[in-house]
Specification:
Blueprint: H1 7-10, H2 14-21, E1 25-30, E2 33-46, E3 74-79, E4 83-89, E5 97-108, H3 110-117, H4 129-136, E6 152-155, E7 166-168, E8 182-184
Length: 209
C-alpha cells in the first residue's frame, strides 16, 4: 500500500480537498484487524461563513474543537444520540473547515465490516456516514487523531474516479441547503443515494463561496 497522504494534501481550499479525496482510501486498524474503503462520496463544509458547518461564525465548543485543529486531523462527532460521523479537517489551523466522508466502496476487511454492520449485503456496509463509521470501527476515541497514524489513515487514490464527479447540494441539512458542495463518483453503486435523473456533472461550486 502507498504511504498515507501528507498533511500538505489537506492544508488547501476545502472544495479542492473534497474533490481530490474521491478515489482515496480510508483505512482503520483495530488490534490486528484492518478495514478500508475507497472514498466515493463527500461533502465540503467550507468555514465560518458556512451556515451548515459546525464552526459557523467561529463558534467553538468541546464537541467541535477538532474542527479548528491542524489540517489532516480527524473530526468525529456523534449525532441523533446513536451515530458517529467522520470528517477530514482542512485549510489551516484555526479555520473550522472540513470534509464529511459520506460513502465508501468496501475493499478490505469485509468480514469485520459485515460483523459490525450485521449484514452480508456489501451495498449496505459503507453507503452513508453512519454506516461507514460502524463498518470501519470509527468512534469518538478517534476524534482528533492524525490521518497518517497507525489507527487511522487516508492513502492516495486507488483506481481514480471515472471522469468528472457528480455535483449536488448537500444532503439532510437545513441551512445553505442549495450550496452544491456534495461530490460523488459518477455512476458509483456505492454512494449513499442514487444520482438524480440525468446526473449532475455541472460544476456550480462558485456560488457557495
Amino acid at each position: 500500500m502507498a504511504p498515507p497522504l501528507p498533511r500538505s494534501f489537506f492544508a488547501r481550499d476545502t472544495v479542492r480537498v473534497a474533490r481530490a479525496l474521491l478515489g482515496c482510501v480510508l483505512e482503520t486498524r483495530y488490534r490486528r484487524t484492518v478495514t478500508a474503503g475507497r472514498i466515493v462520496e463527500v461533502e465540503a463544509y467550507v468555514g465560518p461563513h458556512d451556515p451548515a458547518a459546525h464552526g459557523y461564525r467561529n463558534r467553538r465548543s468541546e464537541r467541535n474543537a477538532s474542527m479548528f485543529g491542524r489540517p489532516g486531523t480527524a473530526y468525529v462527532y456523534f449525532i441523533y444520540g446513536m451515530h458517529w460521523c467522520f470528517n477530514v479537517v482542512t485549510e489551516r489551523e484555526g479555520v473550522p473547515a472540513a470534509v464529511l466522508i459520506r460513502a465508501l466502496e468496501p475493499i478490505a476487511g469485509l468480514a469485520a465490516m459485515c460483523r459490525r454492520r450485521r449484514t452480508r449485503d456489501r451495498r449496505l456496509l459503507c453507503s452513508g456516514p453512519a454506516r461507514l463509521c460502524q463498518a470501519l470501527g470509527i468512534a469518538g476515541g478517534m476524534d482528533g487523531l492524525p490521518l497518517d497514524g497507525p489507527r487511522l489513515c487516508i492513502r492516495p487514490p486507488v483506481g481514480g474516479p471515472s471522469g468528472p464527479p457528480t455535483v449536488t447540494p448537500r444532503i439532510g441539512i437545513r441551512h445553505a441547503s442549495d450550496w452544491p458542495l456534495r461530490f460523488a463518483e459518477t455512476g458509483s453503486p456505492w454512494t449513499s443515494r442514487p444520482e438524480p435523473r440525468g446526473g449532475s456533472g455541472r460544476d456550480r461550486t462558485r456560488t457557495a463561496r
